[in-house]
Design goal:
Blueprint: H1 2-23, E1 24-32, E2 35-36, E3 40-43, E4 46-54, E5 64-67, E6 93-95, E7 99-101, E8 104-109, E9 118-122
Parallel strand pairs: 1-4, 3-9
Antiparallel strand pairs: 1-2, 4-6, 4-7, 5-8, 8-9
Length: 123
């Protein structure tokens, strides 16, 4: 009986974990020298992980996400969960923490590369 209960608990935990993973989507962003290859994005409201790749920029890169209209030069306006968890080394890929995106417009850029600001629309 204990084995059956253990198996049921394990199956339930796996089902809950799989469901939670399905709710977090990925936005893949690639950087080359001085720019992101994705010039604008349109996504639906939800929770996302940003996956940032460094396509041989020659230096470390990162990601900054800011609600449109806020001063992007001020760190207090940055959505810090969208920062990659560590700088992205040349030829590597790093992820952000899960970030909740609500309807509206945002801008994203890399101050390390540096890149222009690009538009992210959440519908």
């Amino acid at each position: 009986m204990k084995k059956i209960i253990s198996i049921l608990v394990l199956v339930l935990a796996l089902a809950i974990n799989a469901n939670a993973q399905q709710e977090v989507k990925t936005i893949a962003l690639e950087q080359t020298k001085g720019e992101f290859t994705q010039k604008s994005l349109k996504v639906s409201e939800g929770t996302y992980v940003f996956k940032v790749s460094n396509n041989h920029v020659g230096r470390d890169v990162g990601l900054v996400l800011v609600p449109k209209g806020k001063d992007a030069s001020k760190p207090e306006n940055h959505i810090t969960s969208a920062y990659v968890t560590q700088v992205v080394k040349d030829g590597k890929v790093e992820n952000s923490k899960p970030t909740v995106l609500k309807k509206g417009e945002y801008v994203y850029f890399c101050p390390l590369n540096p890149t222009p600001q690009y538009r992210l629309i959440v519908e």
